[in-house]
Amino acid sequence: MYSDEIIDGVGGMSKFQFLILFLFMGPRLVTSWGMLMMSFAGVTPQLWWCVNEMTSGASNYTGLKQCSVGDNGTSCSFVYSTEKNTVVNEWDFVCDRAGIRLFITSVQMGGVLVGALLSGQSADVIGRKKTFYIALLLHGGFNLVAAFSVSWQMFIVLRFLIGAMVGSNLVVSYPYAMEFIGRSWRQVTSACPTWQIGSALFAMSCWLRPDCVAPESLRWLAVHGKLEDAEKVVDQMARYNNREKPANTAILLKKLSEVEKKGQESDHKYNYLDIYRHWNICWKSLVIQVIW
Description:
CATH topology of the largest domain: Growth Hormone, Chain: A
Strand content: under 5%
Structural class: mainly alpha
C-alpha cells in the first residue's frame, strides 16, 4: 500500500507508465508467435503419397494419403506436395507417426506450465526484471536453435523450452507492469490487447535505450532492503513524468521495508498453497484459474 501512495504521487498514469507498458507488455507479440508456431509449422501438406523403394519414379505410388505399401512387405518413402514445408514433411509425421505432431504441442503446453510455476518464484527471488529479460532472451535463442533442429527429438525438447519461456513471460510481464501503474488505472491497462497486437519497435527501442527505462520493480527493491535503489526508481519515474516525488518517499519506502521484514520474521515461508489457505483468497484464485 505504501508503494501505491508513492506511484500516485509521481504520476499514476503518465509518460513513464506508457513506456513501461510498451516495454513489458509489447513483447507479448513476439512470445505469441512462439506459442502459436505449431499451428503453422505442424500443418500436414495438402497432398502426400508413399513411393515404393523397389520401383523408380514418382508415378509409382501406392495411393494418395495412403500408408499401405501392398503385400510385398517393402517399405516406402513419402513424397509431399511442395506448397509448404513443415515439420510433417521434415520428419514424416504421417501414418503411424502422425501422433507425434500433436504430441509436440502437448509437450510445449507442458513447458508453459513449468515455466509459469518456476518464473513466479524466480521473480520474487532474483527480481522481475532479470526473470523477464532472461526469459525473453532465451525465448529468442531457443526459437533460433529450433529452426536448425537435426531430429524431431531435438525439436520436441526445444518446443518444451520455448513453451517454458512463453509461460514465464506471461506470468511475469503482467504483475511487473502493474506494479508501476496507479491504482485507478490498473483495471484499464490490464486489458491492453498486447498479446494480439504487440509492437514491432521493441527491438529498436531496446537497441537505442538498452537500460534506461527498464528499472527493477520498486516494491521488490524496497522489500529486499535496497532503499536507495528504490528511491532512484522513484526519481526516474518523476523525471520522466515531469513531476516532483513525494517529500516523504524515503519514509514510505522504509515503512514498506519494515512491514515486509516483520512478515518474514514470522518464520512463515510462503508457497503456492498459501493462495488456498484462506477462503477470501481461495475462491478468487479458483475463479481466475477456471477462467484461464
